[in-house]
Amino acid sequence: MNMTYEYRCKECGEVFDVTASFAEKEAGLHPECPSCGSKKAAQVFGAIGILSATGAGSGGGPFGMPGCGPGGRAGCC
């Protein structure tokens, strides 16, 4: 099974996707930037969304508590 990984070029800042199997990823990917051809890229790790037991929109912050996020109020940040 292939996964898509997001990388950012350290030379030009281009963000691009790389599709690879888990085995290829574990062996070490050295993707080439499609914009400038550099092999100096770092994987980008995005934010992970967490839903509370009552579902999305129950509070605005992590674990359904008030705070950061859509309609965020004073709280976690």
Architecture overview:
It is a single chain. By secondary structure, this protein is mostly beta strands. The chain has one domain (2-64): Rubrerythrin, domain 2. Helix content is 8%, strand content 23%. The protein contains one helix and three strands. It has one helix at 22-27; strands at residues 2-9, 15-21, 41-43. The longest helix is centred in the first third of the chain and has 6 residues, at 22-27. It starts with a strand and ends in a 34-residue tail after the last strand. Mean pLDDT is 77; it is low at 56-63.
Short structural description:
The chain has one helix and three strands; from the N terminus they run ββαβ. It has 77 residues and is mainly β. The protein has a single domain (2-64), classed as Single Sheet (Rubrerythrin, domain 2).
Class of secondary structure makeup: mainly beta
Strand order of the largest sheet: 2-1-3
Q: Ends: how far apart?
A: 37 Å
Instruction: Give the percentage of residues in beta strands.
Output: 15-25%
Low-confidence stretches: 56-63
What order do the helices and strands come in, and which of them pair?
Blueprint: E1 2-9, E2 15-21, H1 22-27, E3 41-43
Antiparallel strand pairs: 1-2, 1-3
Key structural traits:
globular; mainly beta; 8% helix; Rubrerythrin, domain 2; 3-stranded antiparallel β-sheet; 77 residues; single chain
